[in-house]
Amino acid sequence: MGSTTPGSSWPLFRGMAARLIAMTFAVSALLGAAVSGPANAAPLGGPAAMAAATSADRIAGSDRFETAALISQQAFPDGSSRVFLANGMDYPDALSAAPIAAALDAPLLLTAPNTLPSVVVAELARLAPDQVVVVGGEGVVSPAVFSRLQQLGYAPVRAQGADRYSTSRDLITRFAGPNSTIYLATGRNYPDALAAAAAAGSEGAPVLLVDGSISALSAASLALIAARAVDSVFIAGGTSVVSTGIEQQLVGLGYTVKRLAGLDRYGTAVAINEHAFPTAQRAFVATGAGFADALAGAVYAGTEQAPLYSSSQVCLPANSRSDMLDRLQVEQVTLLGGEGVLGPRVSALIACNSIDDDRETSAGELTAALQQRMSSLPGQYSVSVRELGGREVSVSIRGTDMQEPASVMKIFVAYAVLDRIDRGQLTLGTRTRSGLTVQECLRVTIHISDNYCHWDLVALVGQQAMNNQFWAEGYTGTVYSGFSGNGSYYSSKLTSTNDVALLLSRLEAGSLLSPELTRHFKGLLETQVWRHRLPAAMPYGIPIANKTGYLWVSSGYIHADVAIIDAPQGPLVVAIIGSRNATAEGVRALGGIAYEHFNGPVTTPALYADANLITNRSIAYYRYAGNIQLGVLPAGTRVSAYASARDWYQVGYGGGYIYVHSSALSNYYAYPRSE
Q1: In the chain, what are the domains?
Q2: Of the candidates 117, 165, 99, 110, the residue with the CA atom closest to the CA atom of residue 132
Q3: Which of 108, 336, 394, 606 has a 20 to 30 A CA-CA distance from 548?
């Protein structure tokens, strides 16, 4: 088959011709045979001939790779001279390929990063392309996939850059035809770019991915826009995803700029479609909580001159339904993906109409975003998130798994002790077996995660007594070594992220302890010294009451952090336990996704140096805890926390480790109190 020259009018003509042929066959079928299609199909000229669709058809495979292949079969029944191939497990590089593929009338297929699925091999054979464009570098689509394509007789070429933004520019430079219009979309998430892909593809215009969190476009992006002689720029999404600085920069350079945005991803898709499609006979719907099906679907929609809407799994957003059925009165609605991503109510075109719908939609979006990020992280993660207030969204991914939580377990010990103070069985002044008071031991147990005081407190309360209490109060996945409340024996301490999230939710709600001890407990958590996990995913100034954990076990490293976050949109509980060589970076990334889901993008996360303590007075320092004095640290000396022996802290200083009494140390980073 002959190749398509970028910039030629052939793709647009070919798409129009295909639609005219399809319409001719449709009329013939209506006159002489039964038609397979939407449930509202009626004889030509009948009263329902121009009525809006009342239900949807569906394109769905057993997985994302097969779904993309099925979309390709329907969109390109006669094959294609060019095929784009993108990583189906992550979205950044593939986002820019969809509108280019639509404009060039070429399918977009998806592959696993390291292997070419058999269903893709079969679809490539059917399409018989002259060229296969692999989207992304070797870290995105591996050399093994590239070699497999060569073995199959194709001559693949790569479109790639140093990051998603330069890959976007490379695709546009090499493949996009001339057009005075360009769309901009954030590369930090996928919904807006996918909605724009169908609109831009139908116009033969490219979508340029940008880092919308910054205040101005890069010189490379500006140069690309200038080189294309662009007159009009359409920004997909609100100011929280593409900044006002970028918009003002483009206006200042003389471009006509229009922002297409809604209140959320669903509303933005509607705004884009209102702009791009004054009329349409068909509409496509993809999940707003995932990208895979919408990638190939955006190409199909673009070649059909049809809008692409996003939907929750539960129901169709009311404004999406109104736009496609009331404004456009489309006669056919096609869902992209199975019932697992677009359920029966979406297929029946039933609009969301309750707070329960909104809650389930939000939970689905967050779950999908977390799972997508987990797929690219080392290790395994359990995550529980609770929105306290608002829609009260709750998400649990492996949240019931009982597992070693490292030092996160100390919050249960602290609670058990404080609860006994509330009941009059202990006081903050009660002496532990080491001679330190409960108050002193609580502080260092949380502040630096001291193990010695932690076990002093466990001994004071009793392991079995704690186990019985945890079970009775609903923390059925939490146990110290010994017998759980149901009589099962465990050889090590265990908890679940669901249990931790429940405890922290009760603490924040004030139903766990008295008001005085609630403030005391949150104050301990807010001022603990370790800030490299969840707090480092949030902006400065957000009060975070967290307890972190880190441990090596035979199955690999454990990294964990749990927190009450007093976020701008309301309190949020996040509990993450990562195992099997999980990383602090992984915990931080997942925590950032949870925060941004409810509060919008974090432009500049907080940054904490290792030197996290400072001397508040001149103080002697020692080789061991209170033994063998080495010198004196002046007031104002910064040191880094390392370990502890109750109230003696081992800190990094001068290239080595020394001991300093904790009473002489303060947090270097002042941290806001929730009250």
Answers
A1: 10-353 (no CATH), 365-599 (3.40.710.10), 613-667 (2.30.30.40)
A2: 110
A3: 394
